[in-house]
TrEMBL record, chain A:
Domain of life per record: Bacteria
UniProt protein name: NADH-quinone oxidoreductase subunit J
Membrane topology: Multi-pass membrane protein
General function of this protein: NDH-1 shuttles electrons from NADH, via FMN and iron-sulfur (Fe-S) centers, to quinones in the respiratory chain. Couples the redox reaction to proton translocation (for every two electrons transferred, four hydrogen ions are translocated across the cytoplasmic membrane), and thus conserves the redox energy in a proton gradient.
Compartments where located: Cell membrane
Origin species: Gloeocapsopsis crepidinum LEGE 06123
Residues spanning the membrane: 6-29, 36-53, 59-81, 101-122, 144-166
UniProtKB keywords: Cell membrane, Membrane, NAD, Oxidoreductase, Quinone, Transmembrane, Transmembrane helix
Predominant cellular place of this UniProt entry's protein: membrane
TrEMBL record, chain B:
Catalytic activities: a plastoquinone + NADPH + (n+1) H(+)(in) = a plastoquinol + NADP(+) + n H(+)(out); a plastoquinone + NADH + (n+1) H(+)(in) = a plastoquinol + NAD(+) + n H(+)(out)
Biased amino acid composition, Basic and acidic residues: 184-194
UniProt region (Disordered), positions on chain: 173-194
Presence of keyword Translocase: yes
Name the record gives this protein: NAD(P)H-quinone oxidoreductase subunit I
Membrane topology of the entry: Peripheral membrane protein
Top-level enzyme category: translocase
Keyword annotations: 4Fe-4S, Iron, Iron-sulfur, Membrane, Metal-binding, NAD, NADP, Plastoquinone, Quinone, Repeat, Thylakoid, Translocase
Alphabetical list of NCBIfam families matching this protein: ndhI (TIGR00403), NuoI (TIGR01971), PRK05888.1-3 (NF004537)
Cofactor: [4Fe-4S] cluster
Subunit record text: NDH-1 is composed of at least 11 different subunits.
Keyword Protease: no
Family (UniProt): Belongs to the complex I 23 kDa subunit family.
Automatic annotation (TrEMBL), chain C:
Function: NDH-1 shuttles electrons from an unknown electron donor, via FMN and iron-sulfur (Fe-S) centers, to quinones in the respiratory and/or the photosynthetic chain. The immediate electron acceptor for the enzyme in this species is believed to be plastoquinone. Couples the redox reaction to proton translocation, and thus conserves the redox energy in a proton gradient.
Subunit structure and binding partners: NDH-1 is composed of at least 11 different subunits.
TM regions (residue ranges): 28-50, 96-116, 128-149, 255-278, 307-328, 348-370
Subcellular location: Cell membrane; Cellular thylakoid membrane; Membrane
PROSITE patterns: COMPLEX1_ND1_2
Reaction catalyzed: a plastoquinone + NADPH + (n+1) H(+)(in) = a plastoquinol + NADP(+) + n H(+)(out); a plastoquinone + NADH + (n+1) H(+)(in) = a plastoquinol + NAD(+) + n H(+)(out)
Pfam families found in the cross-reference section: NADHdh (PF00146)
InterPro entries linked: NADH_UbQ_OxRdtase_su1/FPO, NADH_UbQ_OxRdtase_su1_CS
GO molecular function: oxidoreductase activity
Membrane topology, from the record: Multi-pass membrane protein
Name listed for the protein in its UniProt record: NAD(P)H-quinone oxidoreductase subunit 1
Family per record: Belongs to the complex I subunit 1 family.
Amino acid sequence: MNLAEGVQLVSFAILAVMMIGSALGVVLFSNIVYSAFLLAGVFVSISGIYLLLNADFVATAQILIYVGAVNVLILFAIMLVNKREDFKPLPNAWVRPTMTAIVSAGLFVLLSTMVLVTPWAYSTESVSSDTTIVLIGQHFFSDFLLPFELASVLLLMAMVGAIILARREFLPDQVITPDKQQQPVLTLPERPRELVGISSDKTSNLDDSRRSE
Amino acid sequence: MLKFLKQVGDYAKEAVQAGRYIGQGLSVTFDHMQRRPVTVQYPYEKLIPSERFRGRIHFEFDKCISCEVCVRVCPINLPVVDWEFDKASKKKNLKHYSIDFGVCIFCGNCVEYCPTNCLSMTEEYDLCTYDRHQLNYDNVALGRLPYKVTDDPMVTPLRELVYLPKGVTSPHDLPANTRGAGLHPEELVEQQEK
Amino acid sequence: MTTGIDLQGSFIKSLIDLGLPAGAAKAVWMPVPMVLMLIGATVGVLVTIWQERKISAAAQQRIGPEFMGPFGLLSPVADGIKFVFKEDIIPAKSDPWLFTLGPIIVVLPVFLSYLIVPFGENLAVTNVATGVFLWIALSSVQPIGLLMSGYASNNKYSLLGGLRAAAQSISYEIPLALAVLAVVMMSNSLSSIDIVEQQSGYGIFGWNVWRQPIGFLIFWISALAECERMPFDLPEAEEELVAGYQTEYSGMKFALYYVASYVNLVLSALLVTVLYLGGWESPIPIELLAGWLGISETSPWLEIADASLGITMTVLKAYFLVFTAILLRWTVPRVRIDQLLDLGWKFLLPVSLANLLLTAALKLAFPAAFGG
């Protein structure tokens, strides 16, 4: 065993322990913020394992998307909706954890049999790390074209949905009707949004007035 | 479509304008970098206070007649005048006098109204102590004369901006006898008499 | 192109000549560039802090640090010593683990990103194939550390600052990545060394600034926002949030934040240099100079001069950019949070997308000039 293999083995062991440990932490911690932070640990360890598999681009993308975007969004959601609530002790509270444990164990057994049964046909030739991006690109535009496009359509749908939610085209009537001028206390009045066509002459008016000054 | 394009054009114009304003601001900042620093390295260099500077108050014990005018004109009745009536000479006999400079606002009313001129302003301004009660000066402390900045061998005296020649902003490295801008008071008097 | 000096090869070879086995020689070599880079980054930070103080002073007609060492050069060192000896306070009712982990998570990716900064053709820690993409990914880890320390401080200003920092770095990462993408599209590679090579050959006229002026501006603005520099320093806005997520920190933990922010600034400047200002290339190509002076391109001392010139050029360009950042700090007032997000999402994002589109079109139209 030379140096490289030794390093690989040791780092695999460290990454595996880190991943399983933090994954258990995600599930078992009662403080949801800890779970969210440990999730980042899981993602980082997964990307380390990708790195050991010579998939450097996937590893980097894993960090960028899962740690940098998904996990930060989860944390954002937790911290913005941090409502303290006293939980009443439920009767038969043990039922839920038990059910979850049974389902998880079943899933684990299923997956491990799948891992053991599948005849893994992995090629031993190592891919040069310089060409991984090119290879991924070629696969995206040939045999994995449909999943790629489907994923992009899915993301587009999510984006459109988010924009519709954020823009809120349908304003409630009370803002538009002039007789209901009085706003509830401590809220900012929602400004009626200008459509693309209307606002252009307004800006030109502003420009004129600015020039005349 | 045209309107949209016009909007895009307006937006681009505004962005360019904003960029130009930022560039203008940057050039101003850059210009400032080339100017000489106006810093006065305080303990080593000090500005010479002007003639009518209102610094720490000086008190002459022997001149005081304990009339308490200073207390009455003071906005907060600050000076403490401790006197005793001497029946033999039928005069007030001053025992102690003190002013707390931690409370004084250096308005100069007491100096203005003192009938015997026993109060006067000095040019001392660095009244720093470790305890605010040390700023409560008694008649001995009030009677001390401050060091003149120009006499202190440790200090390079610097002139204030008003006393510099026209167009000069830095008091450093000025020749000793350069005249400040404008006329001196005695010259003004001379002019008046003509 | 000359191949430059192969430091690694000659180092390992000399060790093998000394009688070490080849594997051990390689193992001895491995930490050397990393340690060198760490030291370089730290020294770079000290210089930047000094520069910031002096330039800020000059912009306000002050003198700045003067008595600590010649021209106050030792003032950042004095700062460092002070931080080491300060009491390390963990506030009551805070979360001690997350409180300690926060600054570490902020510092680590910044120093890791120095992996990809090249100072010469063979003067980089590694030539990673994913290059600049690695930097973008690593810099996206930072907001987690900020959120962590904001949450752990048990202070509402800290939490607000942490949330602001995370929001800011998420929204400015996208224009940043898109600006990088346009450059990558021209050089056909993510590797920072390839990106510089693609700009070489024509001296100052080959640099990417001329081909990507919009991208350059977008990248520099977003990089300043990522570093939380002055016009975008909302997360630590003193007037509103005390010091944001840094409020409760003191001693070494605060020093980690302080170092991270300056290392990040230097790193961003270095990356702008690599992506847009031709990296280690001098404004007049050195081959041309050698040709004028009649020196053979392969003479050994020319290669040494080339390498040292490369390092000097990279550092000079980076520090010029740091200088503009400091100047900008005293020129532009801080933006509001809504203006910040408006600028990121409604201005920089569409403009960078348009820039990407334009680059693609130009690449198809003029493959010779835009790296077909």
